[in-house]
Amino acid sequence: MQSRPHWASLSLACAFCLALIGSSSAIAQPTGPQPWWPTRPTPLPFVHSLFTSDMVLQRDVAAPIWGWSTPGDVVTITFNDEPTDQPAKAGADGKWMTKIGPFPAGGPHKLSIAGSTQRVELTNVLCGDVWLCSGQSNMNWPVRLAQNAEAEVKQASHPQIRSFTVGFYPSLVPLKLPPPARWEQCTPELARNFSAVGYYFARELNQTQKVPIGIIHSSVGATAAEAWVSGPALARLMPEDFPKELADLKQQAGDVGENYDHFAELEKWAAKVDPESAKKKYTSDPELDTSDWQEIDVPQPWEEAGLGDFDGLVWFRHHLEIPAEWAGEDLLLQLSVIKDFDIVWLNGKLLASSQLKGNTRNYTIEGSRVKPGKNLLTVAILNQEGPGGFCSMPSNMALRSVKRPAEKPLRPAGKWKAKKSVSITDLSEPFPEPKVGHYKTITGLYNGMIAPLEPYSIKGVVWYQGEANGPRWLQYRRLLPTLITDWREHFQSGEFPFLIVSLANTNPKQTKPTEPGWAEIRESQWRTARTVPNTGLANTIDTGDGNIHPPNKQEVGRRLALTARHLVYGEKELIYSGPQFSCMKIEGPKNDRIRLSFTHLGGGLAIKEGEEKLTGFAIAGEDKQFVWGNAVIDGDTIVVSSPEVAEPKHVRYGWAWNPLVNLYNKAGLPAVTFRTDE
Predict the structure, then answer these.
(1) Which segments of the chain belong to CATH 2.60.120.260?
(2) What region holds the Sialate O-acetylesterase domain (predicted)?
(3) 248 contact partners, CB below 8 Å, separation of at least 6
(4) Are 579 and 602 contacting, i.e. CB atoms less than 8 angstroms apart?
(5) What is the pLDDT of residues 484-493, one digit of tens each?
């Protein structure tokens, strides 16, 4: 798999967020090859890719650590050159796993992992608290696009904060590895691309708790919650909600599991559709008799190079003479524009493959595969229609050092050997597609961006999502608790804290007493925080100012940290929430007013500084025809009435996309929006 650029999720957000607002209809998913499809095989590493230098290891717990080796291999681990308690033994599938710790907060430390033939040494390792930050575009929003970006980036030097960003990958099956990434230190150069919410949350905790903080950032813009839940959990806990989607997913994925290897399937496909290629070792025999192959000039469409008007599979072979000074270095292989699909081998081992028609192929050759001298490059190209093969200029074919990109490259353009194989009409089976979906694929983001992280030890989760589920707010009351249960089961870290960001105000200001919008999804978020153990809510109803991507991520991070400090870090006297509605009473000589009581008074109820009258309250009788209410603070309660409603029964507060709300406590935290007629 390839890692996602930091802008990729933002592109998804910009493209799809507005379409999601106020619409429950599903967006049509694209068909055919997509830029996020994998192009290179990823061998299972000796140590899982979550364990790198600069990482944060969860403190005060026995933390799992795992990887892959040869079956039966004994793996030992040392921490600061001291052996840990238990070595690990690789099973029949090659996987090894053990636990290390508990270690107190601190560092930097050295972590060494050694097998019989492999050794990895990780440096600058910190022990602290690891928070998984997930959701959609507002979690994905980077520091460089948030409020006061230039000043914040310049000051983003925090040695005890680290981030691991998971790339976009919507898999149809659970994966063992996330897209390539590594832990990054918090420096101005790197922190500019950190999740802004994650970073400001981490900064607050680091400053108040004096412990290292690691954030694992795994989010994608415009995504619905069901994309982040495992298939078995949806089937078990919500069997009536997604039967068609789960059935479609099963049909797409086929009878494969987490051990599915797309690139192994490509090699099987090539051998099946052209058995002669496997028998004569087209990809690996440097001395293959090619007397029945044609010598053609590359690059140019094969119709012009002498292969005739042919749609189907064509094999190409070429020898690269790699200079001695490049031995062991990563190289970049540029193979022109290819039409349509290609599979590339180097010295008999599959290197890469792409199905993006008409795109320039840029493939990295890892240093471990680079040997000086003669190297065999084999390319199988399947063309479906139109010009086929290498279809660009000679200057677009190159092999160069990644380390020294300005150095003169090798030019693979020139004479190549080519052999026509099976025609497109005689192809026995189609070119294999990877088991990859789209950002809307049910369970897809769990499979590709959460499952590969499990069971890494975490302190808790920060969740900023709900926009895409707004129209299905009632279902969300069950869906979000299902996600929480699912993740807690899979991470095996107990009933860890789960912090929820209540959606900010967006769209034009409220003009009617009640309006359709996000009020109900906010209610479902609050309901989850009230009913699911060890969860908390950060209310951001006043941070949006109509913007679907509010730039003030600092306040979001601060309020999340307040919730964490109370819920997780033992600051029980800390005021961490604005007023929350608790109960109502109809009163007055004529039962013509409603008295509202609240928890989380935070020193007392208050009107937003600079304003004189409470706003945002609506009142209705049994008919639920809401009108603006007159609301006044009376001690620790609020009394609401209206001359238009003689016998009031219900009150709503902040019931709109962008409500006119100004109720706070004296600690400066806004009231949670609510309705008494839930």
Answers:
(1) 269-426
(2) 129-231, 445-561
(3) none
(4) yes
(5) 999 999 999 9
